[in-house]
Amino acid sequence: MRILKSPTISTNSILFFLSDIGVDDESGSAGSVVFQVWADGAKLYDSGVMTGNSATKKVNVSVSGKSQIKLIVTDAGDGKNSDHADWANARFIPAGVTPPPPSVKFSIGDRVSVTTSYLSVRATPSLSGFLLGYQSYGKLGTVIDGPVSASGYNWWKINYDSGADGWSVENYLVKK
């Protein structure tokens, strides 16, 4: 087993570690990795083998009372070729801070309109997600999934009336 990344983080008053994990879209269907979260020598999370075809997974691990946290990515035992692992929107939630609630800006089935000149439409809810295309100001669509919090944004999957369908950030959408 080859460890690809292993930063160690010391913590005092951290309650949770959260992240969206997956093999980067640039790897296509190639790449195979295993994500792990360790604290004080004990494994708290193991993603199992993830490939370029795997859906993004959410990590939400309690690290309360732990003194050291390690984020580890292994090559899944088959070498490191195309193993481009992403810890997207990785963050620690400290004691006394409540994680933000999921967005309630839209509901599944809502009609929405684009409020910017070029709104990116991505294959996955992340700034690193494969860019499928753009939607322009005033274009309409229907919310079909979401919200997903990633890359510092809330994302909604939109079935646009024309052009590319996929994940867009809520900042540039309004309910019709």
Which tags fit this structure?
Jelly Rolls; 176 residues; 15 strands; disordered N terminus; 55% strand; five-stranded antiparallel sheet; 2 domains; SH3 type barrels; flat; mainly beta
Would you mind describing this structure in some detail?
The structure is a single chain. Helix content is 0%, strand content 55%. It is mainly β. Strands 1, 2, 4, 5 and 7 form a five-stranded antiparallel sheet that branches. Strands 14-13-12-9-15 form a five-stranded antiparallel sheet, with no helix packed on it. The radius of gyration is 18 Å and the shape is flat. It starts with a strand and ends with a strand. The model is unreliable at 1-6 (pLDDT under 50).
Question: Strands, helices and their partners?
Answer:
Elements: E1 3-5, E2 8-10, E3 14-23, E4 32-39, E5 42-51, E6 57-62, E7 68-74, E8 85-94, E9 111-114, E10 119-122, E11 131-135, E12 140-150, E13 153-160, E14 166-169, E15 173-175
Antiparallel strand pairs: 1-7, 2-7, 3-6, 3-8, 4-5, 4-7, 9-12, 9-15, 10-11, 12-13, 13-14
